[in-house]
Amino acid sequence: MKVADFYNQECKARGYHPDPAQERAIVRLQQCEDQWVAYKEIRSNALTKKLFHPELPRGVYLWRPRQII
């Protein structure tokens, strides 16, 4: 299941409205997952492990901006 599908399913089940900032994070999280899946496919085969040395996928840094009260 894709990250966006899971997010939309949970929003609907809990009665939440999608948030634009969360949707942007979802896109980046999905890209991260796709990159890790591709990396693991290359590294899972002994032959391709010797021939290819892909760069490690980068993670996602999430933060919440401070609110001024």
Description of the structure:
By secondary structure, this protein is mostly helical. The chain has one domain (3-51). Helix content is 62%, strand content 0%. The chain contains three helices and no strands. The chain has helices spanning 3-14, 20-44, 46-51. The N and C termini lie far apart (39 Å).
In a nutshell, what does this entry contain?
This protein has 69 residues and is mainly alpha-helical. 62% of the residues lie in helices and 0% in strands. It has one domain (3-51).
Largest pleated sheet: none
Alpha carbon gyration radius:
17 Å
- Principal-axis shape: elongated
First-residue to last-residue Cα separation = 39 Å
Average pLDDT works out at 89
Uncertain segments are: none
Give the total of domains.
Answer: 1
Strand content: under 5%
Number of beta-strand segments: 0
Written as H for each helix and E for each strand, in order along the chain, the element string is HHH
Estimate the helix proportion, in percent: 55-70%
What structural category do the secondary elements indicate?
mainly alpha
Number of helices: 3
Keywords:
about 70 residues; about 60% helix; about 0% strand
Fold topology:
Blueprint: H1 3-14, H2 20-44, H3 46-51
